[in-house]
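Closing statement on the magnesium ion sub-project.
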Amino acid sequence: MITLEQKRTKKTQLSTVIDVLSIKNLYKSFGENKVLVDFNFTLHKGENVVVLGKSGSGKSVLIKCIIGLLNPDEGEITVLNEHVLELNTTEMDKIRAKIGFLFQSNALYDSMTVRENLEFPLRRHWIKVTQEEVNELVKQALDDVGLGYTVDMMPIELSGGMRKRVALARTMILKPEIILYDEPTTGLDPITGKEIINLMIKIKKKYNTSSLIISHDMNCVKMAADRIVILLEGKCYAEGNYETLKNNKDPKVMQFFE
Amino acid sequence: MADNIPVKSFLNEVGNISQFTGRFFSQWYRPRYEISEFIRQCYFIGYKSLPLIGLTGFIMGLVLTMQLRPTMVDYGVESQIPAIVGIAIIREIGPVLTALIFAGKIGSSIGAELGSMKVTEQIDAMEVSGTNPFKYLVVSRVLAATLMLPILTILSDAVSLYGSYLGVNIRGQTSSSLFWIQVIESIDFYDVLPAFIKTYFFGFAVGIIGCYKGYNSSKGTEGVGRSANSAVVVSSIIIFILDLLAVQITDLLGYN
Ligand SMILES: Nc1ncnc2c1ncn2[C@@H]1O[C@H](COP(=O)(O)OP(=O)(O)OP(=O)(O)O)[C@@H](O)[C@H]1O
Ligand SMILES: [Mg+2]
């Protein structure tokens, strides 16, 4: 496991570093509740970064700010060289087509079949796409997650793990350059969780995406992270790979690795 | 905090609903038009409500006639039953009853549907998939509700009158043509027009309140239930308030 880990780290070090996502001095509060306080972060191309943080520390708020579902109070967010906070709706939609977002609650549309769920982002983002292309992409995305046979089922007929995988397929269908995962393994048993993590790693290799993974699952951290960021008190409290953070003597960092 | 002070929270709610309605008016005419979603909603909201609206309308017409009958016989104006029932149904009972049933069925289902989409982040998912969820979900539903309720009301009125015709014939005997002639003669244009116009407002109210409640649903399944419930309660109250306003306006204009 560790050798694989090191190999992957090496690979990212060798290639020239391109930033696909950078966040500078981000502030976000809800009333009195200061959630993000001067948060800084960069994501390099082809890298998997895990953001660790306690429940309620503002992890979901952070990635919702990135995708434009929440408006930060202050700060600067650059995605693929665009300042997302200054974009209008049309420009924002163009950027969103290049970002995959896996929701914490999957967010599959209950009133639509799996096929319609997968077609939704395709039809909405790419106005010009033929029916054959759509079918092909849907089939490929479902095959990637090993669920080709569920194409005509409703989300309600699927198990939790299957739903997560369908959601992952829907996230992947536009071949995004960046994927934001909001707690991909929470609520799943450890084995299914590992399957999802392996899928994430497979997808990253296959399409060379960069991912920001939010998690507090140590399996996920160990297996998927090239780099780890600890979100604490609204800041990027500590940063590094698994080994360095595990050996960090700060009690606030240590609590995550117990 | 504010919830502890009823007046303040009431005013807050009124403000929020007005803002939501304002958002509807600033968006509904702008592209991109969600035509296929609108048609789908017309089907669900209109067509699927037909049996219920028809059944309740029929029973109301029949029962009203049978209840009126003894008194009318006492006063010796039995022959006026079709005229009186016709006016009652067309001017008041048809529109309001249909709107209330509509609020119960459609208001709650919109509230619950959008509420569960909200709490499971489906609305956010639409937004990141290049869709304006307000247009896709809210505008299509509100327009469909606004346009479908008047049609449902006309159908309900017709079925009600048919029920009334049967009611007349349970005891007495009136030929079908005589019944309809009496009904039509008793009604003039100024009975029909305000009644018809107000149904658009009723439909709009049911749609916008259902969407507002669902769209602002609080987390958890309990929140969804509460959205559905308060969608019905609030839109029913608004229907009565609008009805009261409508009668004042027609009165002022001298159409009463
Ligand atoms: N829309 C909102 N309105 C008000 N407060 C919010 C909103 N969204 C989040 N918060 C607050 O922001 C804080 C962080 O929430 P967030 O959902 O980001 O937590 P999280 O780190 O994702 O936790 P979890 O691991 O449980 O998902 C919480 O205190 C929450 O109450
Ligand atoms: Mg979260």
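Chain A has a mean pLDDT of 89. With this model delivered, the sub-project is considered complete and its resources will be redirected to Aim 3.
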